[in-house]
Design brief:
The protein contains 14 helices and 14 strands. The chain has helices spanning 23-31, 56-67, 95-115, 158-171, 180-185, 187-190, 240-249, 266-269, 282-289, 303-306, 311-318, 344-356, 361-369, 376-390; strands at 7-10, 37-40, 71-72, 81-84, 122-125, 141-146, 174-177, 194-196, 226-230, 254-258, 274-276, 294-297, 322-326, 339-341. It is globular.
Length: 391
């Protein structure tokens, strides 16, 4: 433990049902080795509504289950890491409801912070709605973790969320950007207090398979080659129709999917050459992913994707895989080593080319070297050094 003040993190994800590879979870668990960390599960930006939100019933039910967990210390290896889900009104539609909601969340967080003896914390804000709560907790330092352009999310009140984003970034002493493009576009907001902070990966897990590695039992009876994807399968991010096209176009291959689906993918998983494992541990993801012949990132081309920096590109590289991805500005730095498509047709043609490339051990190791310095431990060292300088 160090002399660093305790940290309260207003997350954009929920610890209990989002992938543990998410940057917020990777960073805050490691920060808890230096100070006490209170991880506040997402307080949301909108309410899931039938007809507007895909699988709204599922989304509401998983949040209810999260609420019943209250305050927990979930990880034995991180004894100073606490997770709390505040009770809230899942709506931000009117000023009156917002005012009640923010006060309700503030009071709960204040009580939990007092219980944990957290005073004058460093506050990390990834969710824009934390803008209305964080300053009232009297932080010694405010940091915005800008992992996405939240106002570009189609189900939110974009104008309202943008006002919150601008307010918190303008006020914060530091904003960490995972997108160089977003850092540039919001220069007038952060006024030089924003810096680029790239994602990391778990290098102990995401490494090339050895020449003597045997195929996992889960893949033993499937047709090869394998086209694979791991990560959340959300229809506002992933192009489901493209996945269906890939399964049809490459009927002599197996399409392997690993990750929680928050939308109906039954028409995809019913195809004979599609294997769906659902949400799994990082260890399982890395073990199965190492045997992909081609790893894909079939993201939609929209405003949301434009400012993202997908961690799975680094994880694919860590495994030494041939990669095909839709065009995203932040991955252009790897353009010499991965195949980038700008529409569905080019994605399919690039996948054909990737399948023709038989990755040698040397090729896999060379791809791994591209991210060999990008461990989460190194990222957290950078953050700790920066925070100490700011303080």
């Amino acid at each position: 433990m160090s002399d660093l003040p305790p940290i309260i993190n207003f997350a954009a994800v929920d610890f209990w049902y989002h992938n543990r590879s998410h940057s917020e979870i990777q960073i805050t668990t490691r920060l808890s080795l230096s100070t006490r960390v209170l991880f506040i599960n997402s307080i949301g930006m909108r309410a899931p509504i039938p007809g507007r939100s895909s699988n709204s019933g599922f989304r509401i039910w998983r949040k209810i289950k999260s609420l019943f967990k209250g305050l927990r210390k979930p990880l034995d290896e991180y004894p100073n890491f606490y997770v709390f889900t505040p009770v809230l009104i899942p709506a931000y539609s009117t000023p009156a409801i917002r005012k009640i909601n923010y006060k309700l969340i503030y009071l709960q967080v204040k009580i939990v912070a007092a219980f944990l003896k957290i005073k004058r914390p460093i506050i990390f804000e990834t969710i824009p709605t934390a803008n209305e709560i964080a300053p009232r907790l009297k932080p010694i330092l405010e940091v915005v973790n800008r992992v996405d352009k939240m106002s570009a999310f189609s189900e939110t009140d974009s104008k309202y969320i943008e006002t919150l984003e601008k307010s918190q970034i303008s006020r914060a002493q530091r904003t960490y950007y995972t997108s160089q493009l977003l850092l540039k576009d919001e220069a007038n907001w952060h006024n030089g207090k924003g810096i680029f902070l790239d994602h990391g990966i778990d290098l102990d897990l995401f490494k090339p398979k050895s020449s003597s590695a045997t195929i996992p039992d889960e893949l033993a009876d499937i047709t090869t080659p394998i086209i694979g994807f791991f990560g959340g399968i959300d229809d506002y991010v992933i192009d489901i129709e493209l996945l269906e096209q890939l399964a049809d176009e490459f009927s002599d291959c197996t399409l392997v999917l690993i990750g929680q689906a928050t939308c109906d993918i039954s028409s995809l998983t019913s195809k004979p050459n599609v294997i769906y494992f659902g949400m799994s541990t990082l260890a399982f993801v890395a073990r199965i992913g190492a045997f992909f012949d081609v790893a894909i990132l079939p993201r939609k081309n929209d405003e949301w994707t434009k400012y993202t920096n997908p961690i799975k590109i680094k994880e694919y590289l860590g495994l030494g895989l041939e990669i095909v991805s839709m065009e995203i500005p932040e991955i252009q730095k790897y353009s010499k080593d991965i195949r980038i498509a700008n529409d569905r047709d080019s994605f399919i043609s690039q996948t054909k080319l990737a399948l023709q490339s038989k990755s040698s051990i040397n090729r896999r190791n060379e791809l791994h070297k591209l991210v060999a310095q990008d461990s989460w431990d190194n990222r957290v060292k950078d953050i700790l050094s920066d925070l100490e300088g700011l303080l």
